């Protein structure tokens, strides 16, 4: 088994194990162990994981806290458990993405290799689109933008990404239909 496949198998095992842990102290220990094992990249990985989770986890945590307060249920222990688990999973995900070439790990499995190739191709397309949006925004805003300008730009960017995704899905469905994929 090649090194990339071992990393991917280890990651899959870790995700499975983490999903069965319901004690925050064990999750915190797992995060600390992952931080120590990551070496020099630990802080950049942690920063990326926290930034990736910030908006989503903040909104989910706030909604959960409001619901728990309304029902007069405990808030902090479940929130700590949820947020630690998600942070650990995302941290490990970023670490694996940085260390493993997915196509090397999937070598020998033609169908999975094909799906990964298509997925990585889409990642490149969307990353380029996001880079184009960032460059256009910077060129049109020489001064630091207002928060409303940032929100408006994010909305337009999200709309464009959604439109591109829907168009691509429609094209794929038409191609599959023309080849008989949906014939029952």
Can you offer a commentary on this structure?
This is ABC transporter permease. With 184 residues, this protein is mainly alpha-helical. The protein has two domains: 3-104, no CATH class; 108-178. The protein is 82% helix and 0% strand. It contains seven helices and no strands. It has helices at 3-19, 24-37, 42-70, 76-99, 102-105, 110-140, 147-178. Helix 1 runs antiparallel to helix 4 (76-99), helix 2 runs parallel beside helix 4 and helix 3 runs antiparallel to helix 4. The longest helix is centred in the C-terminal third of the chain and has 32 residues, at 147-178. The model has no long low-confidence stretch (mean pLDDT 88).
Tell me roughly what share of residues is in helical segments.
Answer: over 70%
- Number of domains as seen in the coordinates: 2
User: Count of DSSP E strands?
Assistant: 0
Measured between the Cα atoms of the first and last residue, the distance is: 39 Å
> What count of helical segments does DSSP give?
7
Shape: globular
Q: For this entry, what is the oligomeric state of its chains?
A: single chain
- Give a short account of the largest sheet: none
Task: Output mean pLDDT.
Answer: 88
Tell me the structural class. Answer: mainly alpha
Order of helices and strands: HHHHHHH
Low-confidence stretches: none
Beta percentage is under 5%
Alpha carbon gyration radius: 21 Å
